[in-house]
Amino acid sequence: MARRLAIRAGWVVAFDGRQHRILRDGVVVLEGDRIVHVGRTYEGAADEGVDARDRVLTPGLISTHAHIGGSPLDRSFIEDRGNPQFWYSGLFEMLPVRGEAQDEEAGRACVDFSMAELLRGGVTTVMEIGGLGEYVVERAAHYGLRVYMGLTFRSGRWLTRDGRRVVWEWNEEDGRRGLRRAQEFFDKHDGAHGGLVRCYFSPAQVDTCSADLLREAKRHADAADRPFTLHTSQSVVEFNEMLQRHGKTPVAWLDELGVLGSNTVLGHAIIIGGSSWTNYPAGDVGLLAEAGCTVAHAPWVFARRGVVMESFALYRAAGINVALGTDTNPQSVIEAMRWAAVCSKIVERNTQATTAADVFDAATLGGARALGRDDLGRIAAGATADLVLWKASSWNMTPLRDPIKNIVYNATAEDVDRVWVGGRLVVDGGRVLAADERAILAALQAGGERMWPRMKQFDWASRDADELSPLSYPEWE
Question: What is the CATH number of the domain that holds 424?
């Protein structure tokens, strides 16, 4: 019989079947990987108790858009740079160079770093989009992180040969081979490690996939009852290209193809009709809402380039399920909540437009809905025991009256005390139990040291790392 753990917390963010509520001085009881009791008291027997009366207990956070095999190496390179020719997007010059110059060993170092980074920031479930599927599956079990793995594929790729225009090179057979590999990967790994790892279908980008490939991938996702994820409306270049190809916005084209639906998770969907970046008539928000799909909003990756969703409040008011993603570094859903709320307030010029509760819902219930999981993102009897215990007394959390406001607007990963995934304690005292911190950091640094000198050979103008991304200050002479 599974052991019972009773956690007595000063504040519990509990779910009443409809919404989160604050339960003061509550008790949450776990049995194995499930929550079996939530209430003010508990009279039953428990094998172990946790006295957390000076702590806040919340459901685990969910990232619905991540690239854990590469994003840590964005750090110290991708920031503060962008070509105005491409509306300051880093997609067409910076990221391809970083990706090509990065070796597989560095990718594995990124996976280890990312899993530890996510867990210590209170993330218990991540949707990974990438190519290092086998290693991700292996390391998920090691660290105890719940992972949805989407092995990515596409019909073509974008590139620039002159820094002035973007072109696309196509190979439809590559896309079909990629989808076959994704299906084989799904068949082999879906449900691995007792269900800790699940798989889904993730064609890469709306502008790099053919209509046939997208329709076929959506059929696979529907048949498996798993998410279908696609980068969509993430740049002005992409938006204008799709208008030229189809006479429709990217979202409208996907709607015409019939691939929008309740299991569709669109990465970003931020450069849309009605946005000030497009000068194109509105309508995409209505299509997204009508289809019942999810938008995986990663606010920081855009905010650092001067771009904001217009706006979180508008999408939410339309009835779109908005979830949160990390996408780049730092891989912090705490920061994602903060930036989502603040950017929405700025766009709406209204401090009440998007609240701490709105973005915390996105990071928990919104992510769970995107995954089709009514057992995640909540503390309720019968739910999976993915939990985060936060300090209530710290430089960021004191004084505490409203734990959600404190978490969203003030907390950092340093305020995460313990994390359970499926009832397994994976973070204790702020330390990721399975992580060798010194080795992880050394491996990532070494990966960067190998990558930066190689960038020159992959850039269209043969620029080295210092030309692509000059140091903030010049070297001491």
Answer: 2.30.40.10
Angle subtended by helix axes 284-291 and 250-257, to nearest 10: 30
- Which residues neighbour 212 within 8 Å (Cβ) at sequence distance 6 or greater? 172
- Give tens-digit pLDDT for 249-285: 999 999 999 999 999 999 999 999 999 999 999 999 9
| Within a domain: 397 | yes
Query: 416 — phi, psi (to 5°)?
Result: -85, 120
180 alpha carbon, distance to own chain's centre:
25
Contact 298, 268 (CB under 8 A): yes
Instruction: Give the separation between CA 346 and CA 302, rounded to whole angstroms.
Output: 14
Picking from 14, 22, 9, the residue whose alpha carbon sits closest to that of residue 50 is: 9
Per-residue pLDDT band for 449 (boundaries 50, 70, 90) equals very high
Shared domain for 350 and 390, answered yes or no, is no
pTM of the shown model? 0.98
Q: CA-to-CA distance for 3 and 287, rounded, in angstroms?
A: 47
Alpha-helical (H) ranges within 319-462 are 333-348, 356-361, 367-371, 403-409, 437-454
Asked whether the beta carbons of 392 and 10 are under 8 A apart, the reply is yes
Report helix, strand and coil shares of the chain as percent, to nearest 5.
Answer: 40, 25, 35
Q: What is the DSSP string of 196-264?
A: TEEEEEEE-BGGGS-HHHHHHHHHHHHHHT--EEEEES--HHHHHHHHHHHSS-HHHHHHHHT--STTE
Q: Are residues 296 and 397 in the same domain?
A: no
Task: Tell me if residue 194 falls in helix, strand or coil.
Answer: helix
Given the DSSP bridges, would you call strands 123-130 and 167-170 parallel, antiparallel or unpaired? unpaired
- As a whole number of angstroms, the distance between CA 198 and CA 190 comes to 5
Residue 466 vs residues 74, 453, 462: alpha-carbon distances, Å: 14, 9, 11
Domain match, 65 and 55 both: no
Q: What is the pLDDT of residues 193-228, one digit of tens each?
A: 999 999 999 999 999 999 999 999 999 999 999 999
Task: State whether 212 and 346 are in the same domain.
Answer: yes
Quick one: DSSP state of residue 151? E
Q: 241 Cβ partners below 8 Å, 6+ apart?
A: 166, 168, 207
Domain identity same for 387 and 274: no
Measured CA distances, 65 to 126, 186, 237, 269, 297 (Å): 7, 18, 21, 12, 8
- Measured at the CA of 110, the angle between CA 475 and CA 363, to 5 degrees, comes to 110
Residue 96 structural domain: 61-354
- Find the Cα–Cα–Cα–Cα dihedral 385, 391, 392, 395, rounded to 10°: -150
